[in-house]
Amino acid sequence: MKTRKIPMRTCVVTKEQCAKKELIRVVRNNEGVVSVDTTGKAPGRGAYLKLDKEVILKAKKTKALDNKLEVTVPDEIYEELLKLING
Predict the structure, then answer these.
(1) What CATH code is carried by the domain that includes residue 13?
(2) Range of the domain at 28
């Protein structure tokens, strides 16, 4: 039986490669609207973050998502990411 390849992605803050399931994707569409992509399949430019409170707070402080997505990420996105961690 053939073994399936696990898709790997890199966190924009820690630069650590992890399985795609361990990361959350933030996406910017063609209109410049930023959203959290829970499915991992939304169209647009994406950036991955580890599901860790410290990583998300560091991304907000260093503006890592702003640089990667080439747009200003609103604070609501970071709040939504923190809610995903807390359940």
Answers:
(1) 3.30.1230.10
(2) 8-86
DSSP 87: -
Residues 6+ apart with CB under 8 A from 53: 82, 85
Q: pTM of the entire structure?
A: 0.91
Phi, psi of 63 (to 5 degrees): 60, 40
Encoding tokens for residue 4?
Answer: 């399936």
Per DSSP, the three-state class of 75 is helix
Phi/psi region, residue 35 (left: phi>0; alpha: psi -120 to 50; beta: rest), is: beta
50: left (phi over 0), alpha (psi -120 to 50) or beta: beta
Per the structure, the count of domains in the chain is 1
pLDDT digits (tens, 9 = 90+) for 54-67: 999 999 999 999 99
User: For the residues 24-34, what does the mean pLDDT come to?
Assistant: 96
